[in-house]
């Protein structure tokens, strides 16, 4: 959404309910929450002894790592496109 209107929605992440407020659609916010939930469950499968706080931090670290790798790839592709012009 581009009109600055705040949208509120409830999401479930790792068995806990959260209210999220943003300018994106409810569908988008639910999709983001679903990705976080999936990542937390993936990490928990490999490290079932982690408490919820450590699990949340490791999830954040993994998601930021994925983001940075995608950003680097995007910038590399952007650079290649500029070189062709």
> Overall pLDDT, averaged?
95
> What best-fitting shape do the alpha-carbon axes yield?
flat
Helix content: 55-70%
Number of strands: 2
Which residues form runs of ≥5 with pLDDT under 50?
A: none
| Beta-strand content bin | 15-25%
Structural class: alpha+beta
Q: Determine Rg (CA atoms, Å).
A: 17 Å
Number of domains: 1
Strand order of the largest sheet: 1-2
Oligomeric grouping of the chains: single chain
How many separate helices?
A: 2
Mind describing the biggest β-sheet? Answer: 2 strands, antiparallel
Q: What does the secondary structure layout of this molecule look like, with pairings?
A:
Layout: E1 7-13, E2 16-22, H1 26-46, H2 52-84
Antiparallel strand pairs: 1-2
């Amino acid at each position: 959404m581009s009109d600055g209107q705040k949208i509120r929605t409830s999401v479930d992440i790792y068995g806990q309910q959260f209210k999220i407020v943003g300018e994106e659609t409810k569908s988008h916010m639910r999709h983001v929450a679903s990705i976080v939930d999936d990542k937390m469950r993936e990490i928990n499968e490999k490290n079932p002894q982690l408490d919820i706080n450590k699990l949340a931090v490791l999830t954040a670290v993994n998601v930021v790592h994925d983001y940075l790798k995608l950003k680097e790839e995007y910038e590399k592709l952007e650079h290649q496109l500029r070189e062709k012009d």
